[in-house]
Records
---
Amino acid sequence: MRACEDLPGLANESDTDAARLLKLERFGFVFAERLFDEGLRQQILGFDAIGVDQASSSWQAGGNMEGKETRFGVVNSVLWASATTAASNGSVNSMHDSYTPLGGLVPLFLMQFGEVVFGGVGSGLYGMIVFAIIAVFIAGLMVGRTPEYLGKKIGPYEMKMASLLILIMPIIVLGLTAVAVLTELGTSSRLNPGAHGFSEILYAYTSQGHNNGSAFAGLNANTPFYNITGGIAMLVSRFWLALPTLALAGALARKKRIPPGAGTLPTHTALFVALLIGVIIMVGALTFVPALVLGPIVEHLLM
């Protein structure tokens, strides 16, 4: 959390690590949206050429406000967007479709992490447990010891169930996104072409598959195609995950608890926290970054 401590006003001595992480996340989100407010940046990035008004006014504080609900402003809108996609509550106070490409990338990536930042309702809890099991398994391979978690040895069966848990949702979300962008039934509902239209479709399936419920907007999802495929995404990505979760819980419950030994990796230390964060980022990056490159990242580079 040292980076957060170095930013004035972002951290207090009484803040917990979780509070500092949240403040750092919010800072990054606000920066991504406010990056384009200055006249110099709009000239450099070509906003004048496409007719986007970034000027502040009495009803448009800070510019870049279309779809961000002028009653709340840029800061409050993007803070809520980051909270809702990290906490699995699905509420919105602005249109995520109107965010800058980098600003739209943030809520997408927060959902694709598995909503483990705050421990999303249900899915965030067991998602974090699975990531912890994978982290101790990787650590065990690195030191040549049998991995243990909470006094239970992690064997091949537990890792197979954990692998299913982290693979089912991406397969469904990315698979249905690919079907949607390759068919007329999927592309006819988007209101924007190119990379931004791809982001709208990817966000829709990510939200449905990750138990969030928020919408990027800019996509008419009330069609037979999106009703059927969206229902499949919710059914498989949410309920099918319960099967390996229960199988994993049952397998661990049947095992005898063993006392910690010299080769046991403590799971309450800063080292394990760092390893766990690294595993979460690695899994999220390897799974979804290629899709994000085709959407918000390409859109940002084309501005």
Note: The longest helix spans residues 270-301.
---
Amino acid sequence: MRRIGVAALLCLLSVGAVTRRAHRAEGAESSAKVTTRDLIVVYLSTQGVNYSPEYRASIRSIRDSVTKHMNRLEQRLVMRGVSLEPMPEAGLRDMADLGRFDELSVGGNWTNLAVVRYLGPEMGAGIRDSEIPQIVLLERDITHDGSAKLTVGEERELGRIVGTGDILDWIKRGTPIQRR
């Protein structure tokens, strides 16, 4: 009986030692920095330019098309929808018809924080970068140090597609993303 008790005790001690080594190994791995890169597709629009069912279907196809070009191990796709509708409810309805977005910014019309961020503080006739609809392609690095620290890097602009015709052409060409 004593032999079984001693054997059981030795077995428990060895399991405990293995468990402690595994936790130390996990701790070592989790303290390593891991950096991933986000590819961000920002679609800026308003109801007046999202009129035809074909156009809406093309916009809904962007997520799948862009995903085909990505290296899933190194990148994550973020789809952002920005509506220039004055009222949030109208912007939400408009964006819902255009597909699945990971982030939305609606309401506020031309003074919406995301509109100002992506189009700049000066918008109007003759300024091509303020035409709607528009797609802004960005990337950013996200670093997680394995503990509680997360660092979100600056967004870098990769390109802009302005106007319904250019957006449809970009989609027909397979949504190519050019790195600068």
Note: Residues 1-29 have pLDDT under 50 and may be disordered.
---
Amino acid sequence: MSYLKRYLIAGLLVWLPLGVTIVVIKFLVDFFDRSLLLLPSHYRPENLGIDIPGLGVVLSFVLILVTGMLAANLLGSKLVRIWEAFLDRIPLVRSLYKAVKQIAEAIFGSGEQTFQNVFLIEYPRKGLWTLAFQTGKNIAEPQRKTGLDNVVNLFVPTTPNPTSGFFIMAERSEIIKLDIEVDEALKMVISGGVVTPETGKKIEADEIGKAEGNAEQNVTLLEKKDG
């Protein structure tokens, strides 16, 4: 029975991730295929006798690319501001739109709008550690009134949904900067620590190697003293 159980688990570990991946990809393809509804009915593939799976993905990609090109120029950015000003007049839509946009800018943006660095902080109390992301370097009245010499703006995400979390301000000397990429740290947060950054694995291996080396040196010194 132990062999049967082991083989079943091994099989599940092969098929379960593959099955979930296929389901997610199929969902995304079907979702983006709905962009074909933007086309006039007589230009849609089913009415032309054409059935190409994933054609909507290509159309969505082109649509997003063209939108980005328009929004990046002067006229397009002005139109975007007018559109956002219109949305800002609608109470519920205003809150949702701003929240989603800020999260998207933090993750996909550039410069001051992105998660800049990953820090290790003691939160929610001493002795418990978690990951936090630096959200900006701007110093305003809230930061000045903390009385901290070198204040850092941090976002502490929740697991498994990193779009929610807590904003805190911390003293730079009380937090530890990590040498890992933001996307690797996000994977660790989303997985609840199951997925660990590759850099972290290398550091851990190096530390173990150093510890073993120090132990061997200590043993050698003791043998010399005994001799």
Note: The longest strand covers residues 129-136.
---
Amino acid sequence: MMKNETHKTTGNKMMKTTRKEKSQGMNWCAQATRLAIYLRDGLACAYCGASVEDGTKLTLDHLKPYSKGGDNSPTNLVTCCHRCNSARGNRPVRTFCKAVAGYLNHGTTTAEIEKHVRNTAKRSLKQCRIEAKELIARRGSAARALASM
């Protein structure tokens, strides 16, 4: 068995499940945790600052890419707009922050963006988890909670 494989059982047969197959779709992160991270990060991209008020589609970005052994812990995840997440790929945070500083073009430095991203990931999720669960209970889903914001 390879490092990134686990086994799943189908009837009497054991089938290999690769790491990529396990992480497909949005189900790799519990919806309450996903919403809590979005709330922790102010419902805005940690890199460029685009927010849901601007109509931005939010995603989660792994600071240490999953493809390079990063995990799904909240301290390794930040809110990211679709544009930044697609553009970053698996480049190091510092390298990507340099690119963001270039296209934002409003005087923000690479170091300031990187510091913000790293500090954002360190914030506690405790209160945000409570708020996320309450929002989901009231709205029926994390997607509906986000749509109402």
Note: Residues 126-139 form the longest helix (14 residues).
